[in-house]
Design goal:
With about 170 residues, this protein is mainly alpha-helical. It has helices at about 30-45, 50-60, 70-80, 80-90, 100-115, 125-135, 140-155, 160-165. Helix 1 (about 30-45) packs parallel to helix 3 (about 70-80) and helix 5 runs antiparallel to helix 6. The chain is globular.
């Protein structure tokens, strides 16, 4: 005769006890930002033309999971408006943008582009997404630099939204 209670519910491990954090699946927008960053890195390092970079990025295995329209806007927009974006960033960086690491430069360009053109994305979200890119691809503590620069740039690019947030 068994001493176990077959009718008793099975014990489940307590959630969160292992300390492991389950990774959230990447959104299509996050994937588009990652692909755009890789393309901008290639552009900043090699100076390749946009069509070559675009074709290369579309060949990547996970590209089909990205928001392709957002990728197109980011890659083409950042390259087309590189001088204007660098002018915005120059007011808030501690050195010439050409002296930044290509990863941080690319992340800042994407953040500035989204702040300037993607009004449907709240400015705090645009900054946070850039910080996450910097954490994933940039150097140690580069995300802190990106956060500070884009937070100050948001005051230039989204003054009403920043002012409304600061009053709340």
């Amino acid at each position: 005769m068994s001493t176990s209670n077959d009718n008793a519910p099975a014990k489940k491990p307590a959630a969160g006890k292992t300390g492991a954090k389950r990774a959230q699946p990447k959104s299509a927008r996050r994937r588009s930002r990652e692909a755009a960053l890789q393309g901008l890195y290639q552009w900043l390092i090699t100076g390749d033309d946009v069509a070559t970079i675009d074709a290369h990025m579309r060949e990547q295995e996970d590209f089909k999971k990205a928001d392709q329209a957002h990728f197109d806007a980011l890659l083409n927009g950042c390259i087309l408006e590189a001088a204007d974006l660098d002018a915005v960033l120059a007011r808030h960086v501690d050195r010439k943008t050409t002296e930044l690491s290509p990863i941080e430069h690319g992340v800042l360009m994407i953040g500035a582009y989204e702040l300037k053109h993607c009004i449907d994305i709240p400015y705090k979200v645009a900054i946070n997404e850039a910080v996450e890119l910097a954490k994933s691809f940039g150097g140690t503590d580069g995300h802190k630099y990106v956060n500070g620069v884009l937070d100050r740039a948001a005051g230039d690019l989204r003054p009403a939204e920043v002012a409304a947030r600061n009053k709340a």
